[in-house]
Design goal:
Layout (H helix, E strand, L loop, with lengths): L6 H31 L8 H33 L4 H14 L1 H20 L3 H16 L5 H12 L9 H25 L1 H17 L22 H14 L15 H4 L48 H17 L3 H9 L9 H13 L9 H14 L4 H14 L6 H16 L21 H16 L2 H7 L29 H10 L1
Helix pairs in contact: 1-2, 2-3, 2-4, 2-5, 3-4, 3-5, 4-5, 5-7, 6-7, 6-8, 7-8, 7-9, 11-12, 11-13, 12-14, 13-15, 14-16, 16-17
Length: about 500
């Protein structure tokens, strides 16, 4: 091999550079791991973990400032369920290093504006939530946040823009208020009330032509099928009546109030939402799905009311878990059952309601129908003592209300139930549904059973279907898939080719 002069002398230097790069990467990876894992189960308290992490990050800010900014920003968007943990972390860092706090606020603002511009609506909403919660940590002033929220609500007064655009901006503001409403109420009550009045005016005049087409049932008994903004507005009004006190959001920054209240605050820059472009796509409206209320749940934790803000927060968190892990049914089921506030709510009922809300989402579910069926099967395997009973109760409720069910949801119910039966040896208490045999064959209840049996036939064989059903259901069974040989029928004439037809005609 030919070497240039000086190659040997350069090799030690290149080796040192590679080692430095390797060591730098290891430190970055370690910092990322520490930040991502904060708040997970640990032998130490969350407060001590946060204090230790602040010390580590403060020591590394000089060399890894940009990397730390990116990691914290990503965590705010990708792990919104830990929003208050990361805002507390930022608040403690801001108390020790005011300049870094300002840089992080600028970074989040930049992410927020970019997300609005490129239509990343969930990322924009989580960024807004993070900025709002920084008010609780004395990082951002309440006045500048209210100005931002006011500018977003002003979109509701825009003309010649799609209603879904105005709806989303109002929804983003309303869904942020549970985190910061109490602080704004204490510091800027008049400005907060003015903001809520503007929202109420918009909600009273907006059209809801889409409502009927998105309903799962054609009647409102026993649970009203509310349009999503109307439901959230009712929950926010209930929260306001309770003086903005909720019981679901963890607030670790309260333990550091004496430190955070002495920190200098930053003001958000004036942010105006980007103008509407023809290429923009916005989230579509939906109807809030309700299956259970507190009377359906046995003794234990009480299911929050339909208009309590806790119901919204729980459902949003569970929907986010499904969105994050839907491609891995085992992981998804495990994370759903490890819901952090499961001791305070009837978790199995909440999970089943949210999964059926996804399955029956109109006009189409977010993911393949089999995705939800496979997650429910994993949940039954992981929680065999309670989940099958809750799922059976939900199936009974759906069957009793099937008379008014949307046709598309009826088909999805058939597909799910037949698939679920095929994974549990086709066992079901059919005798409980005997009353449907007295109805007309085309009534939704006997029709549902008939359609389920046809689907089960594709997943099994006729003799199995015949044996699993009581004799009283004989008329609903699918016909046996026997071959039909048309020439064996009485009077059947075999097909003749052209030469045979001519010969027959000549003989005639």
């Amino acid at each position: 091999m030919i070497r240039r002069r000086g190659d040997d002398e350069d090799m030690p230097e290149r080796g040192r550079k590679r080692r430095r790069m390797s060591e730098s990467q290891e430190v970055e990876d370690r910092l990322e791991s520490l930040i991502i894992r904060v708040g997970e189960k640990s032998t130490s308290s969350l407060e001590s973990n946060l204090e230790g992490l602040v010390s580590v990050l403060e020591a590394d800010l000089g060399a890894f400032r940009a990397r730390i900014l990116r990691i914290l920003s990503d965590c705010a968007i990708r792990m919104p369920e830990k929003c208050t943990i990361y805002t507390t972390l930022v608040g403690l860092l801001n108390a020790k290093n005011y300049n870094f706090g300002g840089e992080l606020v600028d970074f989040i603002v930049k992410t927020f504006k970019s997300s609005l511009k490129i239509c990343r609506w969930d990322a924009a909403r989580y960024s807004l939530r993070f900025l709002a919660d920084l008010v609780n940590c004395h990082v951002i002033s309440a006045t500048s946040l209210l100005q931002l929220l006011d500018n977003m609500v002003d979109v509701s007064n825009e003309d010649t823009v799609p209603q879904v655009r105005r709806d989303w901006y109002v929804f983003a503001v309303l869904s942020t208020l549970p985190w910061v409403g109490r602080d704004l109420y204490e510091k800027k009550e008049t400005a907060l009330e003015t903001l809520l009045v503007k929202i109420e005016v918009f909600l009273n005049k907006r059209t809801k032509k889409h409502h009927n087409s998105l309903r799962v049932w054609s009647v409102d008994a026993p649970h009203p099928q509310e349009e999503y903004l109307d439901c959230l507005w009712a929950q926010i009004r209930k929260l306001r009546q309770d003086n903005w006190a909720e019981k679901h959001i963890p607030r670790p920054y309260l333990a550091f109030d004496s430190i955070l209240c002495e920190a200098l605050q930053h003001n958000l820059p004036v942010i105006h939402p980007p103008s509407h472009q023809e290429s923009n796509t916005y989230p579509m409206p939906w109807v809030v799905y309700r299956m259970f209320d507190y009377t359906d749940c046995p003794d234990g934790p009480i299911l929050p009311g339909a208009h309590s803000i806790e119901r919204f927060l729980i459902e949003e968190h569970l929907h986010h878990i499904i969105e994050t892990y839907h491609t891995e049914r085992k992981d998804c089921a495990a994370h759903l059952l490890n819901f952090p506030y499961k001791s305070k709510i009837p978790l199995e009922y909440c999970i089943v309601e949210v999964i059926f809300a996804e399955l029956f989402h109109m006009p189409t579910p977010r993911y393949l129908e089999i995705c939800y069926g496979s997650i429910l099967i994993e949940l039954c395997k992981l929680q065999p003592a309670t989940m099958p009973q809750v799922l059976a109760q939900a199936t009974e409720i759906l069957f009793m209300r099937i008379d008014s069910m949307n046709t598309s949801c009826f088909d999805r119910f058939v597909n799910w139930f037949s698939y679920h039966l095929s994974n549990f040896q086709f066992r079901w208490s059919w005798d409980d549904w005997d009353s449907c045999l007295l109805l007309e064959p085309e009534h939704p209840r006997p029709k549902f059973i008939q359609e389920v049996l046809h689907k089960c036939l594709r997943l099994s064989y006729h003799q199995m279907i015949k044996e699993m059903m009581p004799e009283t259901y004989a008329r609903l069974l699918p016909a046996a898939p026997e071959p039909i040989y048309k020439y064996s029928a009485e009077g059947a004439v075999p097909d003749l080719n052209e030469s045979e037809k001519i010969r027959c005609l000549d003989n005639f």
